[in-house]
Each structure stands twice: as C-alpha cells, then as structure tokens.
Amino acid sequence: MSERPEDIQRFTIGPGPAGLEREAYYAGWLVVGDWLAHFMSFFEIARIPEKEMPQRVAAQIETLMSETKC
Q: I need a surface site. Which of 3, 28, 30, 61 has the fewest CB within 10 A?
C-alpha cells in the first residue's frame, strides 16, 4: 500500500480509481457490513489485531469482488 500523501488523499478525500468520493471509506463500510452480515460482532471486529487488519480487509475485498462477478 502506498503511503504517499497524494495517494492517501486520493482514496480518502477525492475520487479514487472507481470515481467514488472517499473510496476508502466506502470500501470500509462494505467490508464491515459483510463481516456483520456473516455473524461477526462489532466486538470481534474491534479485536482483530492491528497487524492482521490489512490482510483481513484485503481478503474480504477479494471475497466481495468475486461474489459480484457471479
């Protein structure tokens, strides 16, 4: 993941590659919503170790993307 200020701004404030404003926030809503729909609680989500979170979120995004291709 890029840590360049212009990349961070593009995904959190401006439109990202999909043309959505605040694309990172939208992706976060989708990921957390899917976790909650599949019987994870807010408590369990909050307890995911910080070091694991990038991999868990990336895996969930891949899952969501593969489900929309069906």
A: 3
Tokens of residue 55, six digits: 């991999």
Q: Where does the pLDDT of residue 2 fall: very low under 50, low under 70, confident under 90, or very high at 90 and above?
A: low
Task: Report d(CA 3, CA 70) in Å as an integer.
Answer: 33
Nearest to 34 by CA among 2, 1, 70, 66: 66
Please give the C-alpha separations between residue 49 and each of 11, 46, 55, 65, in angstroms, as whole numbers: 23, 8, 11, 24
Residue 69 has pLDDT above 70, yes or no: no
Residue positions counted in the chain: 70
